[in-house]
């Protein structure tokens, strides 16, 4: 089994948490979306949307986050000889879908300094054009990706888009706060794949230095956040990349790559 992902990608974190929680071995391949590695033709043929993660088991390829997680649970169940799949429970499925409905893209990008955002956006568009020239058989898919990049730039200028994204997040967190006042985890007394879906969102808020605004003021989520950070899966998938020097190393390495490639005009 192979997983194409990046440590900072939110959906990749969800899938990796599921893999770690279920104790499933896999081969890891990093594909940094900021440097355009997710647009390389080999990976783009697997998933023409260019999104991460991409999960491959033999000839079977999945790139929708919830589908991957449910597939992982089925593998774990077969391996263990059990019949219990927690993500089949109604409460778990509802939470997974509810969480996945919030798109973090515009919220995240709106908290990145404009000068960095514009620079990376131009770089990505040039990467798409370069890959289009290298793989004309995928020109249609690359063209759609290029159009999507321009649309993203336009939407980031629309205050209504950003407001709706923030309001959606607030509603989701408020609902989670109410649920966590009744149970220790999102779908009941035990940790489930619903929690796997929520944890990366809280980690993203911490990464953006928004913990006080969105987490601390919600006491049940704040207590839950402390609890889930103690799990080995969190420490391996998120904690080691976000704490201390590793976070700065990853960001610095990415920025240097984009800067040098732009100067050399090698995309």
Q: Which labels suit this protein?
A:
267 residues; mainly alpha; four-stranded mixed β-sheet; 13 helices; 4 strands; 6% strand; globular
- What's the overall geometry? globular
Q: How many β-strand runs?
A: 4
Order of secondary-structure elements: EHEHEEHHHHHHHHHHH
Overall mean pLDDT stands at 94
Q: From the alpha-carbon coordinates, what is the Rg to the nearest angstrom?
A: 19 Å
Q: What's the tally of helices?
A: 13
Distance between the amino and carboxyl termini: 29 Å
Structural class of the secondary elements? mainly alpha
- How are the strands of the biggest sheet laid out side by side? 2-1-3-4
Q: Return residue spans where pLDDT drops below 50 for at least 5 consecutive residues.
A: none
The fraction of residues in strands falls at 5-15%
Main sheet overview: 4 strands, mixed
Portion of residues in helices? 55-70%
Topology:
Elements: E1 2-5, H1 10-21, E2 27-30, H2 41-46, E3 54-57, E4 60-62, H3 65-80, H4 90-100, H5 105-109, H6 114-134, H7 139-155, H8 159-180, H9 193-207, H10 211-216, H11 219-228, H12 232-242, H13 245-264
Parallel strand pairs: 1-2
Antiparallel strand pairs: 1-3, 3-4
Helix pairs in contact: 1-3, 1-9, 1-12, 4-9, 6-7, 8-11
């Amino acid at each position: 089994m192979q997983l194409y992902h990046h440590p900072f990608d939110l959906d990749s974190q969800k899938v990796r948490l599921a893999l770690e929680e279920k104790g499933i071995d896999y081969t890891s391949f990093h594909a940094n979306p900021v440097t355009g590695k997710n647009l390389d033709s080999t990976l783009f043929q697997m998933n023409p949307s260019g999104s991460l993660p991409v999960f491959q088991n033999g000839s079977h390829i999945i790139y929708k986050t919830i589908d991957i997680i449910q597939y992982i649970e089925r593998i774990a169940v077969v391996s263990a000889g059990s019949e219990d799949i927690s993500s089949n429970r109604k409460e778990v499925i509802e939470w997974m879908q509810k969480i996945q409905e919030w798109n973090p893209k515009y919220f995240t990008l709106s908290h990145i300094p404009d000068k960095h955002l514009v620079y990376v956006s131009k770089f990505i568009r040039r990467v798409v054009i370069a890959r289009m020239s290298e793989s004309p058989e995928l020109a249609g898919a690359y063209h759609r990706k290029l159009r999507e990049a321009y649309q993203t730039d336009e939407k980031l200028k629309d205050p209504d888009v950003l407001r709706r994204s923030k309001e959606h997040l607030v509603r989701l967190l408020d609902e989670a706060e109410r649920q966590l006042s009744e149970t220790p985890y999102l779908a009941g007394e035990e940790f489930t794949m619903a929690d796997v879906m929520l944890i990366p969102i809280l980690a993203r808020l911490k990464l953006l230095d928004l913990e006080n605004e969105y987490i601390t003021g919600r006491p049940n989520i704040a207590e839950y956040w402390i609890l889930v950070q103690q799990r080995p899966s969190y420490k391996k998938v998120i904690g080691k990349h976000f704490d201390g020097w590793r976070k700065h190393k990853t960001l610095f390495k990415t920025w240097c790559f984009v800067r040098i490639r732009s100067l050399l005009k090698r995309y």
